[in-house]
Amino acid sequence: MSAYKISYFNLMGRAELARIMLSAADKEFEDDRFEKEEWPERKPNTPCGQVPVLTHGDKQIPQSMAIARYLARDLDLYGKNNVENTKCDVVIECINDVITETVKLFFEQDETKKPDIEKNLMEVVYPRFLSHLEKMLNENSGEWLVGDKLSVADLAFFDLMNRLTAKKGDSVFETSPTMKKHLDKITNIAGVQKWLEKRPVTDM
User: Fold this and answer.
1) Which of 4, 40, 109, 140 is deepest in the core (most CB within 10 A)?
2) Could you give the count of Cα atoms lying within 13 Å of 100 in the half-sphere of its Cβ?
């Protein structure tokens, strides 16, 4: 029996970062997926009435970002001190901002507005985000976003950009080839590569 279990819908969604973190750390985990029809039965057994939920031993941990931070501490994927930990948190929050802007495209009902949203994403939101992270990377010797080793910051970046490139191709990196190289570097980590090869194919 695995020490870790991640319970979530049969999607990448808000659980994928945790799956990637465990995979990068070469930790076995139970990938507990279920279909939306099963949710009413499962919901009463979750801590906050929502998923994802990480089960680690006898602990149940809800909320995707709380899970990411818990795993970062547990798997040595945070920084070495409070300053480095905060830098990791900054990257995570920047990514959440990008996600907030990106989902506007999918929830917009007026098709005539979608081209302007897409244009803003490709010409403003993504370049600004990548420029900020490229500056962080360069100021940190160019190896990792925070500190001298792989961290949750790198893996959260990977999770976002791996999904965006799957939908939009490498054009999202047009203004930042440096960050495309960083994405490729993380992709080639053995545990990450293994997870990409075996994870179920889903739309989201």
Assistant:
1) 4
2) 7
